[in-house]
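Exercise (ungraded).
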Amino acid sequence: MELWYTEQHTDNVRFSIKVDKPLYTDQSEFQRIDVFHSKEFGNFFTLDGLMMVTEKDEFIYHDMIVHVPMATNPKIKNVLVIGAGDGGTVRELTRYSTIEKIDMVEIDKMVVDVCREYFPQTACKLDDPRVQLYFEDGLKFVRSKENTYDLIIVDSTDPFGPGEGLFTKEFYGNCYKALKEDGILVNQHESPYYQEYAKSMQRAHKRIRELFPVCRVYQAHIPSYPSGHWLFGFASKTYDPLSDIDDKAWNSLGLKTKYYNTEIHKGCFALPNYVLELLVNAGE
Amino acid sequence: MELWYTEQHTDNVRFSIKVDKPLYTDQSEFQRIDVFHSKEFGNFFTLDGLMMVTEKDEFIYHDMIVHVPMATNPKIKNVLVIGAGDGGTVRELTRYSTIEKIDMVEIDKMVVDVCREYFPQTACKLDDPRVQLYFEDGLKFVRSKENTYDLIIVDSTDPFGPGEGLFTKEFYGNCYKALKEDGILVNQHESPYYQEYAKSMQRAHKRIRELFPVCRVYQAHIPSYPSGHWLFGFASKTYDPLSDIDDKAWNSLGLKTKYYNTEIHKGCFALPNYVLELLVNAGE
């Protein structure tokens, strides 16, 4: 027999991966979690059937969500990570000895438990002494925080199901308040290519733009995500990722990365005209 | 019933598009040609089952294969286009009033005939008076040319079947000879992500690098191609696409483009570390 995992990128587009072996399946309090092994992507897991992390290309997402803000402000010390149950974002953050504290708030403990078992590649730094895990709703957690973090990373699922609250104006407003006066907010920002994703991207952008003086969007090639064209949001109270990046400082750290480099940093903010148009028209 | 077109991106990865209506199918002297209509991508056509052009995203490929060299050297007058039976590359070239002559060499006349019928969006400028069509093998055509073209664009299929000769050292060597002393060669350069494509990319890069003093690779997000992460090669005898681009001159032309802009031009040459490594190790 053959076993294929299929994700519907739209009603009319499917992406399928041949599965060698299903490794895990369960329903948590919040969502269905499945883990598979495949030849092409290694282990991968899905939440409610949607692709989250593959061993083959998780480095792209995690490089881009972490190193872009860290190269922009190397003085970041206190970080809040929301979502990110696989641990990949925390793994990249812990490579900076200058970071003192990482609060990670994941609503679904079962995701973390599953990733500890099946994704040691991403979950390997969740026990770093600087990391504090909270199994709570990120939306509620951030509400009580004020002037606390240098960086907030929203590493959420898509805005359907448990991730929905992390795309609201209330949430971004609370992030603003929880950030110090030179704080940076980075979020996974969906994709511009298929209409449903593009709408989510526009909504998120409109809301963030109303709150933060600096509001930019950058892109990466993530082939296991719908369309492979994925976006991230960079918002801040002062720092600009293009004028404030300190190439030399970041390169002198000697971090080995498989995707990110300081040229990519500068290049990834250059967006295609059709994406720029979608962003300008967001919420009109 | 449901009808789905499926392309195997690897033995273990499939990309499928729901087909509203098959529009055409035939076997030419060289390859099988199929045209379909779909909700998500509009009309699209395949050669030997591999995706070539979709109405939804052909603008990305054609913008990037044409405007990058044209913005680097606005004095380009004589152009040779190899392959490109759909006409999209010629369409973009004809937007430059400064171009005087375009030789287009497509081995398979049936591709052009089919595209004239089903893809007026791309084939619309094939009758421009500056365009001369040759239905010949590009490999043979270019052999007899010397010091003739300012720009050669190799808009070929993948290096399996009829496109194979367009990835050989002999072919690139003949392109070098056919170019004037400040000539530019741009070619579709496959993808770095799945192994078989990455090998083709490495082979092409190694061969071009041995011939041209300037040899760079740039990338674009083309969701209908395998992995969505697609590369182009830029090789030349003198021009460097980053130091020689004249933003102001290009922007003053007032060309409306849906993907390309001069910021993308500068950003698209910044490649991920894993791609840089594949290129450095090409042919070792």
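Further reading is listed at the end of the chapter. For now, observe: Chain B has a mean pLDDT of 96. Chain B touches chain A through 40 residues (CB under 8 Å).
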